[in-house]
Design brief:
- This protein has 551 residues and is α+β, with helices and mostly antiparallel strands.
- Helix content is 60%, strand content 8%.
- It contains 23 helices and 9 strands.
- It is elongated and about 100 Å long.
């Protein structure tokens, strides 16, 4: 590949960031927060509890969730205070982390082997399906990739940049090293590998600068050391999870499959070509390859000792994705330069040189868009989109008179936490999910609420066949005199929402009491009883036609 001007390189980087944004936005608001995401929000105190200060969040992580670093909860607590706690707001933080990682992949690639390598590294990371998946999940892992790349970039600037290292390089190195440990304890493999590599380097002024900066990074991490120790102790008690832990060949094979977007042979070929290129190119390129190999070795060693990583926790080694993207870029660059030296017609050289990067990036893009590459459950996983319900309930429900009951079938145990979190938006509407609705402790409350309600909204997960709980609830509605209003408010393959009311007058589009103008009517007046004693509450509501202006 020919060298690129700064203008062309930045244009390609901007296009890459735009592509990464489009890929990362796929699921930001497509489904509810799942269990791990809810745990992130709960630790950062975004579930409605009183806000915590930084020291309280840190203590919450150390004693309640010591298996994860405190960096992401601290960041999420501040972010949530500014942006809110909707699914989109919580997840978009990971998208920003992913975009930062893509930009840093460009910087590391450029520092190691020039602008073409930087563009290829950024593009490789941007279309990595495994990385893209975590760009729309409220977890720490895109920040892990970004901080790992920041650490590598700063180290390269300190040791190999033409100018003497300044305070900015040192600050970036401290932030990358300490931040990586705060973000995820398992990511310690990358700074540990860098430390081992650093021991082999010439002991000059730059070496000592990096050593002191690394020492300050360790000091900055000391407040969280007790959390790491607690996390290791807790890992040791997870016998069931340890029994499901991957063997070392399994971990290596599955990680390689995801890193390669399924094209394992192509990634191996690029690593071989990139390794040869790095060995010839210079110390910065050789260092990146060696640090990556050491990180792989240390990750495998940690798995052999801790037995933590099962199939659902491959994400613990995502710190490798940044250096692997740069290594793959070196391989693509090596193949392109090798073809340029071949005695072939120039059009053929250009075509072949463009073919391999196109295949590599197209494979990643295909995997990123494949709804079944990361999960067997398809485009939106297996979580319901509660916002479909809350959007309707905010407009249509009468909180003082209505109840929402949601039938989740065998998913109830997994759904209850995110359901309760999302239903805060429709408070004070009383809401139930089957996990609590038909529990013996809440059955009396449900029956009392249903009998007192003028209307009951009934949502249902359609992916599973109805069971006895569903039948019992319909019988409860009928016994309370509640009948279904015509039609469904939501009628999707996976989700339905229907309204049951004491009288047809309580259904949308009921009898008109007062016509207040074109498209404006007061509806919902029930038939008058023969005798009224005391107060009589009549739920009514204004009905507006779609073409009525807001003012």
């Amino acid at each position: 590949m020919r060298d690129l001007s700064l203008r062309h390189a930045l244009a390609l980087l901007l296009a890459t960031l735009l592509l990464a944004t489009l890929l990362g936005m796929q699921r930001l608001d497509s489904e509810a927060l799942w269990y791990d995401e809810m745990w992130s929000v709960d630790i950062a105190r975004g579930t409605g509890a009183a806000p915590l200060n930084a020291s309280e969040v840190l203590a919450n992580v150390i004693y309640n969730d010591p298996t994860q670093g405190p960096g992401y909860p601290l960041l999420l607590a501040g972010w949530g205070a500014l942006a809110g706690w909707s699914e989109f707001a919580v997840r978009v933080l990971s998208l920003f982390g992913g975009l930062l990682a893509v930009a840093l992949a460009y910087r590391v690639g450029r520092e190691v082997a020039g602008r073409p390598a930087g563009v290829l590294a950024a593009a490789s990371l941007a279309v990595s399906a495994f990385f893209v998946w975590y760009m729309h999940e409220a977890r720490t892992y895109t920040l892990v990739v970004a901080l790992g790349l920041l650490l590598l970039w700063a180290y390269r600037r300190i040791l190999y940049a033409p100018a003497a290292p300044g305070w900015r390089s040192g600050a970036a190195f401290i932030l990358g090293g300490a931040g990586l440990l705060y973000a995820n304890y398992y990511a310690v493999a990358l700074p540990a590998a860098l430390a081992l590599y650093h021991l082999w380097q010439p002991k000059n002024r730059r070496w000592w600068y990096a050593t002191w900066a690394g020492g300050l990074a360790v000091v900055a991490f000391l407040p969280a050391v007790i959390g790491m120790v607690n996390g290791i102790e807790r890992y040791s008690t997870w016998e069931e999870q340890r029994a499901r832990a991957l063997s070392l060949p399994q971990l290596l094979g599955i990680s390689t499959y995801f890193a390669a977007n399924g094209a394992v042979l192509l990634l191996l070929l690029l690593c071989i070509a990139g390794g040869v290129f790095a060995w010839r190119h210079g110390p910065a390129a050789r260092g990146l390859v060696l640090v990556t190999l050491l990180t792989v070795a240390l990750s495998l060693l940690m798995q052999a000792v801790l037995n933590v990583i099962e199939i659902t926790k491959i994400r613990y080694v995502l710190a490798l994705w940044g250096p692997l993207a740069v290594w793959a870029a070196l391989g693509l660059l090596a193949v392109g330069r090798g073809l340029a030296r071949a005695r072939l017609p120039r059009p053929a050289v250009r075509g072949l040189a463009a073919l391999l990067p196109a295949l590599w990036l197209a494979g990643g893009l295909h995997a990123s868009l494949d709804p079944f590459f990361m999960t067997e459950n398809g485009p939106t996983g297996d979580l319901m989109r509660w916002r479909t319900l809350t959007n309707i309930l905010r407009e249509q429900a009468l909180p003082q008179h209505d109840v929402l009951a949601y039938y989740s079938g065998r998913r109830a145990h997994d759904d209850v936490q995110s359901f309760q979190f999302s239903m805060r938006e429709v408070a004070p509407l009383r809401t139930f999910i089957t996990f609590s609705v038909f529990d013996a402790a809440t059955a009396d409350e449900l029956q009392a609420q249903t009998q007192a309600a003028a209307r009951v909204w009934y949502g249902m997960d359609r992916r599973f066949p109805p069971d006895e709980e569903h039948t019992r609830f319909l019988a409860l509605l009928a016994a309370a005199g509640l009948r279904p209003c015509p039609g469904y408010f939501v009628a999707e393959p996976a989700l339905s929402l229907q309204l049951y009311a004491q009288s047809p007058a309580y259904c949308p589009g009921g009898p008109v009491v007062v016509q207040a103008g074109a498209g404006i009517a007061l509806t919902g007046w029930p038939p008058l009883p023969a005798t009224v004693r005391g107060d009589w509450t009549i739920p009514t509501g204004w009905t507006l036609a779609a073409d009525v202006p807001p003012e």
